[in-house]
Amino acid sequence: MARALLIVLDSVGIGGAEDANTYGDVGADTVGHIAEACAKGNGDRPGLRQGPLHLPHMSALGLGLACEASTGRLPPNLAPPGALKGAWGYGVETSKGKDTPSGHWEIAGVPVAFDWGYFPNTVPAFPEKLTNALIERAGLPGILGNKHASGTAIIEEFAVEHLKTGKPICYTSVDSVLQIAAHEEMFGLERLYEVCGIARELCDEYKIGRVIARPFFGTPETGFKRTGNRKDFATPPPSDTILDTLTKAGQAVVTVGKIGDIFAHRGTGQEVKPNGNDACLSAAIDAMKTLPEGGFVFANLVDFDSEFGHRRDIPGYAAALEAFDRRVPEIEAVLSQGDLVIITADHGNDPSWPGTDHTREHVPILCFGPAVNLGSVGRRESFADIGASVLAHLGLRPGEKGSSWI
């Protein structure tokens, strides 16, 4: 009975990308720098966590060894605590971006060979033609922001004016993205989704990868906070991914978290979209309990990136890694004899790095299951090797990109 579970720890990179200089990221190392900070006491936060980074289960699967192979440095406290319990390696991104769609599409067998469009770091950031068309087609009184910004900071800056005027807050980053924030109750969630859908159509001309709805709630007195109803409006992959291949073969597919949005809901099967790492992991585990033979569960855990990486929160990121690690035995407990689990990432987001954006890094590849051969799967020259290995495990021929280690 062959089944597969693929978990993307969003932004959990392990440094070492040879082309990092192209992105201004030479030396970035998400896991390594978190481990080093924790070893020095800089990952402590009262009531949250303290001490060295403690990831015994992922370390036993080979996380520290993958880090060492990627960068030449074994991060503090990440050596295998005993006998190795998995197969490990690291993946090299060949796509031209360091963003979520590029990473996930390449994992799923479709590296991004073209250049995404980006908005300049100017004020205003968006072309006047785009802004005017969005205002007219969506019937808006105008927009706020119109610049590069941190998602939480720009809400604090413009939320009060947004409540007074009804103008949504529009912003971007170094990623190929247009983000639109609005109050979930005052502006309306469905109205926000409608505006984002219009923006998605308008952004196609500029080769923008995603339009993201960023609803928030709160008042000037209580403060403002983003809700869990984020929604990504992504352009579809240019060719078939492993999700399309599995769907066309009639094999069960369950996608958890923002996977459905990232792949524009194509081949994404049963979509489950809870809020937060724990809820998404629980949904993935539950899906494995009833998954038929030949089935595939594909899950994204976004909090590492959105809650801690972009916010440059080392203690929070460390605590999230430890929380996931504590649940690895729960994953093991639902596996049958022919099951394969792969844990990986889509890019880096080093919380010790300047700025608030993603970092160009290698990603870990950790494999386990009752019949998985222990040891190294080596350096994989494309993230597409991950998808190719999933298809090979499930008895299907891999696509043109990627080479299976199975």
Describe the overall structure.
- The protein is built from 14 helices and 14 strands.
- It is of the alpha/beta class and 406 residues long.
- Helix 1 (30-39) crosses helix 12 and helix 5 (128-138) crosses helix 7 (184-203).
Write a short abstract of this structure.
The protein is of the alpha/beta class. The chain has helices at 30-39, 56-61, 63-71, 100-107, 128-138, 151-165, 184-203, 242-248, 259-262, 277-290, 303-309, 314-326, 328-333, 384-393; strands at residues 3-9, 87-91, 144-148, 169-172, 177-183, 210-219, 223-226, 231-234, 253-256, 270-272, 296-301, 339-344, 363-368, 375-380. Strand 9, helix 9 and strand 10 (270-272) form a beta-alpha-beta unit.
Topology, please?
Layout (H helix, E strand, L loop, with lengths): L2 E7 L20 H10 L16 H6 L1 H9 L15 E5 L8 H8 L20 H11 L5 E5 L2 H15 L3 E4 L4 E7 H20 L6 E10 L3 E4 L4 E4 L7 H7 L4 E4 L2 H4 L7 E3 L4 H14 L5 E6 L1 H7 L4 H13 L1 H6 L5 E6 L18 E6 L6 E6 L3 H10 L13
Parallel strand pairs: 1-11, 1-12, 2-14, 3-4, 5-6, 9-10, 9-11
Antiparallel strand pairs: 2-13, 4-5, 6-7, 6-8, 12-13
Helix pairs in contact: 1-12, 5-7, 11-12
